[in-house]
Amino acid sequence: MYKMLSLMVGAVGLALVALTAGAQAQTELQSLRGAVPVTETSPPPELQRQETRSGRFRRAYRQQPPMIPHKVDKYEIDLKVNECMRCHDWPFNVEEHAPKISETHYFDRNGVALDRVATSRWFCTQCHVPQIKARELVPNEFKSAIEVGRTE
Ligand code: HEC
Ligand code: HEC
After folding, report:
1. At residue 151, what are phi and psi to the nearest 5 degrees?
2. What CATH number should be reported for the domain holding residue 72?
3. Is residue 25 exposed (0-12), middle (13-18) or buried (19+ Cβ within 10 Å)?
4. From the CB of residue 43, how many other CB atoms can be counted at a distance below 10 Å?
5. Residue 117 falls within a domain, yes or no?
6. How far is the CA of 101 from the centre of ligand 2 (A)?
7. Domain count, the chain
8. What is the pLDDT of residue 152?
9. 98 CA → ligand 1 middle, Å
10. Domain for residue 9, yes or no?
11. How large a percentage of the chain has pLDDT more than 70?
12. Is the CB of 59 under 6 A from ligand 1?
């Protein structure tokens, strides 16, 4: 009988824990659109300005595609046009004082050297991205290889 009782108390306790956890989840978890019901239009997110800086971003690890230190919203990239190349392809990069695209970008996927940028590198923003100072959507503990090297 005593055993039964403690089992029951245990079960009630568990249920209580589950209930309070459920209630907490309800108040703390929200979708990105906030508390606005799906049937209503939520206000547009605040526009963030792309960060520009003179000089380059430090890479977080050696193989990282360097991040873009200037705005890119006006530069078109489609099947025919790639405005990035107007400054980053040789010889234009010399006059524009822009870094030339990496030599690796002139090799196709079979390692054959080409005289123009490889099609696999055509859509630059697939790998290179501008930066925005924004609150992280999900907390994370990412550390650059440099920081890790320093602290551990
Ligand atoms: C009008 C010329 C111009 C255009 C167009 C342009 N860039 Fe740049 N970009 C520059 C210059 C100049 C720098 C160097 C900035 C510095 O060192 O201060 C730079 C820097 C960069 C870097 C940093 C390289 C590094 O080693 O850190 C990347 C990546 C980059 N641009 C990518 C792009 C991409 C992708 C596009 C197209 C969406 C683009 N750029 C269009 C002029 C341009
Ligand atoms: C598939 C991913 C990818 C694509 C697509 C790509 N890049 Fe890169 N890029 C990289 C990586 C990785 C590096 C650094 C390693 C290296 O040098 O290859 C780099 C390096 C660079 C650099 C720095 C070169 C230096 O010597 O410091 C510039 C500038 C650059 N890319 C511009 C561009 C432009 C412009 C385009 C579009 C025409 C482009 N990249 C497309 C991955 C990519």
Report:
1. -100, -20
2. 1.10.1130.10
3. exposed
4. 8
5. yes
6. 6
7. 1
8. 47
9. 6
10. no
11. 78
12. no
For residue range 64-79, list pLDDT tens digits in order. 999 999 999 899 999 9
| Cβ contacts of 117 within 8 Å, gap of 6 or more | 82, 85, 89, 101, 105, 106
pLDDT in tens, 12-52: 555 555 555 555 555 677 777 788 888 998 887 776 677 77
Lookup: tokens for 48: 């963030």
Residue 118 falls inside a structural domain = yes
CB-neighbour burial class of residue 77 (10 A; exposed 0-12, middle 13-18, buried 19+): middle
Host domain of residue 149 = 49-152
| Domain-embedded: residue 22 | no
CB of 71 within 6 A of ligand 1: the answer is: no
- 3-state SS track over the chain: CHHHHHHHHHHHHHHHHHHHHHHHHHHHCCCCCCCCCCCCCCCCCCCCCEECCCCCCCCCCCCCCCCECCCCCCCCECCCCECCHHHHCCCHHHHHCCCCCCHHHHECCCCCECCCCCHHHCCHHHCCCEEECCCCCCCCCCCCHHHHHHHC
